[in-house]
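Title: Prediction job returns without error message
Component: structure pipeline
Severity: low
Priority: P3
Assignee: unassigned

Description:
Job completed but the reporter wants confirmation the result is attached to the right record. Sequence as submitted:
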Amino acid sequence: MCGRYALFRWNPEFAALPGFPADQQPHWSLAPGASVLLMRKVEAQLQLSRARWGLTPAWLNDFTRTPAQARAETLAEQPMFRDAFRQRRGLLPANGFYEWRGTARKRPFWMTAEGSLTHFAAIWEAYPVEGYSYLSVAVVTLPAANLRRPLILDEAAQAVWLDPDTPLAELQALLTQPQPLLRERPLATFVNDPALDGPQCLTPA
């Protein structure tokens, strides 16, 4: 599954988007439960917001069960995801993500697409806590052999995904569109430490 990704480099155009945090720090290892940058459309304008990685609908009582991933195959039917899929879609900007392969001793790999920034399809929810509304998010994933990978959207698909008026049939078509060819690099095992969030995560094998 897509359990860890990174956002440590961005261009001036990205940093100029409304909502980009002035204190934004580079992150080489973002895991479920972390505060991540969510891109969405607010009043027809692209905007960045901080969100918790782990979808938390307002009706959810058990905060230990906040899914970080949503399967594309069942997105439109699952009660946890279907309303957000139809009404609250966003993107998670990233430089790449990590994938672990193997059986007895899993090897981490760094996975990237073309371009400095990649955009994962996501859905979001707002949840109230003591009078304040927080944002939460789940990344949409696709099957990849015996793994799960984030649904990556190109620029044209991003516009369709973020448009609140996109018909359901077009949204579902995005869930099955061909994915870009990914570059992969085997890594040393530093990134296996979930507490590590530094450039050492990308140390080659």
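Comment from assignee: result matches the submitted record. The longest strand covers residues 132-144.
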